[in-house]
Amino acid sequence: xxxxxxxxxxQTVSEIEKDFxxxxxxxxxxxxKKDTLGDVIGLxxxxxxxxxxxxxxxxxxxxxEKGCLMYPTxxxxxxxxxxxxxxxxxxxxxxxxxxxxFFPSVLTAMNALVWALNPPNTPYTLxxxxxxxxxxxxxxxxxxxxxxxxxxHEDPTQRGRIDFAKLKTEMHLRQSKVLVISNPSNPLGKVWxxxxxxxxxxxxxxxxxxxxxxEIWIDWTFESPATSFAKFITSPTSNHSAILPxxxxxQPATKSTAAKQPTTSxxxxxxxxxxxxxxxxxxxxxxxxxxxxxxxxxxxxMATSKTFNIGGLNCAYIITKNKPLxxxxxxxxxxxxxxxxxxxxxxxxHLYEQGDETFHHYKELVRKNRDYLVEFCREKIPQLxxxxxxxxHVVWIDASAxxxxxxxxxxxxxxxxxxxxxxxxxxxxxxxxxxxxxxxxHPHILAEALNRMHQAIKNSH
Length: 461
Ligand SMILES: Cc1ncc(COP(=O)(O)O)c(C=O)c1O
What we know:
By secondary structure, this protein is α/β, with parallel strands linked by helices. The chain has helices at about 10-15, 25-35, 55-65, 80-90, 105-115, 165-175, 195-205, 245-250, 255-260, 285-290, 305-310, 325-335, 340-355, 355-380, 410-415, 445-460, and strands at about 40, 100-105, 125-130, 140-145, 180, 210-215, 300-305, 315-320, 385, 395-400, 420, 420-425, 435-440. The protein starts with 9 loop residues before the first helix and ends with a helix. The chain binds pyridoxal-5'-phosphate. Pyridoxal-5'-phosphate binds near residues 131 and 214.
């Protein structure tokens, strides 16, 4: 192999090499092994092959000694520490403590939001390409895919515009009331700019649409920080939206039906295990989901998992100011008895207070891998068009210039290079010529994967 001018700093390599071992139990490496025989390199799921810090290990050790393994309540520091980060890092000083609700993961939070806001039997709208599980929120919801424009534009800052006229027509036609967005976008790495966010929110207000912004990648920008939709959240004009469960709507509120109304509570999973105390006991989620929240709402979901590489110890939260929505979400948490584990809460507190240096280190490792990838593809695989965005450690790649990969470039690389990548079609039906590559791995593994891909293309001619 010719010498690439971008070399990986040997210090960096040895730093992470000493502890490095692909985790065979992780979804990414395990699936790679199961899918085919042999030593497949797994570059699919978006987590990182970098070791945890001694401080993170200490949190786990301390927890093992004294931590609560019973059904959790909310740690008293969880809310203030998170709020401080929302104020200091995302500059959303409009957000108050009571506007934050904790969930075990982003996907449970997004599911709850679609369940709470999306009228039954109407589709929610998803801007595509987008993260595959966002296509399946709160089934049996249907979905309206709305492809972003110019996703392959030469200038990365011009990629992924919204066609508002089309969005309005289609959402109106399909009676869709919920718009789901990822900010920054997975897989595009597009960081939504304040003017664009303003436009989206303005559109949503005028058309009575709820906006759900999945901001799991919010910290993962390479240049300037991303703007959170949370900065733009205002209190709804009215907080008296009809959110009463169906059975209550059909009768005057008596003492007993009033007692069934959900209450906002500071505990993660309050009273969940005593049906008599469960706020909405006896009302099924199906009935409850039919109650409408009329004020157009912006809700944001954030988490620790991408920033600190703890997808297996996740702690997520919804930020919203809509009181009826909060009540409905609290009902959901109580009904399903769901909450982040105490260990996940302890880890959030530690990482939000002291973890940013570690994150910075991860990001520098990924930045070097990005540089290496760019140079390698320029010199050896120019057929792969890297659509590098301004954020995240996954890279969206246009493989349409590869003539030898038949209809599915991900299949081609799995079979011929033993490199496991995601196929673009999972991110939207029209992206069949695309692949997504996770580059947050050991530099030697990335180099090996790229060499194998290069060789596979050469062999296929
Ligand atoms: C945009 C997006 N949302 C959500 C998730 C998953 O979040 P969680 O594991 O907290 O459910 C991912 C994971 O890659 C993601 O990229």
